[in-house]
Amino acid sequence: MRAVVYDFTEGRSGEYARQFLGEWKGKLVCDDYGGYKASFAQGVTEVGCMAHARRKFFELFTNHQSQLAEQALGYFAKLYEVEAEARDLDHESRKQWRQRHVKPMADALFTWMQAQRERVPEGSATAKALDYSLKCWVALTRYLDDGSLPIDNNHVENLIRPIALGRSNRLFAGSLRAGKRAAAVMSLVQSARLNGLDPYAYLKDVLARLPTQPASRIEELLPHCGQSKAE
User: Fold this and answer.
1) With 43 labelled, which of 11, 21, 25, 202 sits at a CA distance of 20 to 30 A?
2) b vs e for 97-124, b when ≥16 Cβ sit within 10 Å of the residue's Cβ?
3) CA 204 and chain centroid, separation
4) Is-contact 179 16, C-beta < 8 A?
């Protein structure tokens, strides 16, 4: 199933993430946001986002022209360059490719980070950038052992970016119920795009079908079911 699901909550507390995930015990690709920690304790597997780790060094280089950050960015560039070569492989072949070609690079980056960390003062911007990756390293490299996992969650971030850009407007959705409805509509729109449908044509088609669609078969109208003729 290919689908995008948005949720509207009254805050960013970890309890909302736990409620949304429910009994699910899969692998969650995310940054180091503390709200997910309780879910990890309950059986969800943490998969780190390499783009977030890279971003710490990118900001360090942009703000301070740090040579160490520039070196780190070079390591990350190599990781992504080799990863791109496995883009079209099946999951098992991608795992084998990563183990053979990517893991040695990741190990070299980790060793380099450990060595650099011993040389920088506590509390510095450089130390914070290094600590983020070192603390999350197990989660950051979990993708190396599973060909179905991405190196980062950029794809998801791109899907939520249009929503995030307008978040200030949604502070005034009117009510929690209105926010939930908006999230449902946006879920349908993005799911339609993900499944190769034109969102406007898809929603128009669904609204035309709704009056005669049996409630017991309402799921047939979801974008991933392919029931809509909208193209």
Assistant:
1) 11
2) bbeeebeebbeebbeebeebbeebeeee
3) 30
4) no
CB 191, CB 217: distance < 8 Å:
no
Contact between 54 and 62 (Cβ < 8 Å): no
Planar angle of CA 51, 76, 31, nearest 5 degrees: 20
Please report, for the chain, the start and end positions of each structural domain, with discontinuous segments joined by +: 50-140
Q: Which pLDDT band, with edges at 50, 70 and 90, does 228 fall under?
A: very low
Q: Is 174 left (phi over 0), alpha (psi -120 to 50) or beta?
A: left
Residues 6+ apart with CB under 8 A from 155: none
- The helix or strand, by DSSP H or E, that contains position 47, with its residue range, turns out to be strand 45-48
The greatest distance separating any two alpha carbons of the chain, rounded to the nearest whole angstrom, comes to 70
The structure's pTM equals 0.81
